Amino acid sequence: MSKIGFIGLGIMGKPMAKNLVRAGHQLVVFDVVETAVQTLVSDGASRAASPREIAEQSDDFIVTMLPNSPHVREVVAGKNGLLEGVRRGQTLIDMSSIAPLVSRELNALLAEKGVDMLDAPVSGGQEKAEKGTLAIMVGGREAAFDKARPVLEKMGASVIRVGESGAGQITKLVNQTIVAVNIAAAAEGMSLAEKAGVDPRRVFDAIRKGLAGSQCLEDKAPRMFEGRYEPGFRVGLHIKDLNNILETGHALHNAMPLSAQVMEMMQNLANNGYEALDHGALGLYYEKLNGISLKK
Ligand code: NAD
Question: What is the CATH number for 22?
Answer without folding.
Answer: 3.40.50.720
